[in-house]
Amino acid sequence: MQKGEATKQYLLELAKEEFLSKGYSGASVRNIAKTAGLTTGAVFRYYPDKAALFDALVAEAADGLTNQFKAAQNAHFDLIPTNKVNESTDLSTDYLNHFINYIYDHFDAFKLVLCCSEGTRYAHYIHDLVELEVAQTKVYYDRLRQLGVPNRKVSRDVHHMITSAYFTAVFETVVHDMGREDAIEYVNEVAAFFNHGWNGLLRIT
């Protein structure tokens, strides 16, 4: 590894410790530079500002999960023309297990996003995922109704609150530093609870 690249990686490790300890708002590039034995200006030659340091630590993992989440939503729409809508719950659970393993493969990045991101573009990460889910799910069930598959309409406010509760519960695994195996067991129990609730609420027949 070349010296410049090694310095960049070293700075990222120090920045991660600073952000985890103080959060984004409380973190100081000056402290990171001092610990690295560099001037603040030298740090800015590698990363133009504090936001760039944070993004370098979390963007790939956080944006990657968002893109995978969008792909999972599309997969549910793929069930419609093949008359496999009844497999939707199993598909959701399969994706959930994939997501939780992905999150744990990038645990520190998601710890930063969930606990230390106030003041960054990731401050409302869970909310943004919830908004995606609510919007796409409405389209999904509207399409089912157009095809003659009965399901009860649920108000957007109710849908948003339930989805927010579900996503928050899943990400609590990271917030509370739960081990991977315990997290997998926990999210599957949470999913079973919410799936039964949705089926009862929507009255899918």
From TrEMBL:
InterPro entries listed in its UniProt record: Homeodomain-like_sf, HTH-type_Tx_Regulator, HTH_TetR, Xyl_isomerase-like_sf
Recorded coiled-coil stretches: none
GO MF annotations in UniProt: DNA binding
The entry's DNA-binding region: 28-47
Record keywords: DNA-binding
Domain HTH tetR-type span(s) in chain numbering: 5-65
PANTHER family: ACREF/ENVCD OPERON REPRESSOR-RELATED, ACREF_ENVCD OPERON REPRESSOR-RELATED
UniProt protein name: TetR/AcrR family transcriptional regulator
Organism expressing this protein natively: Clostridium porci
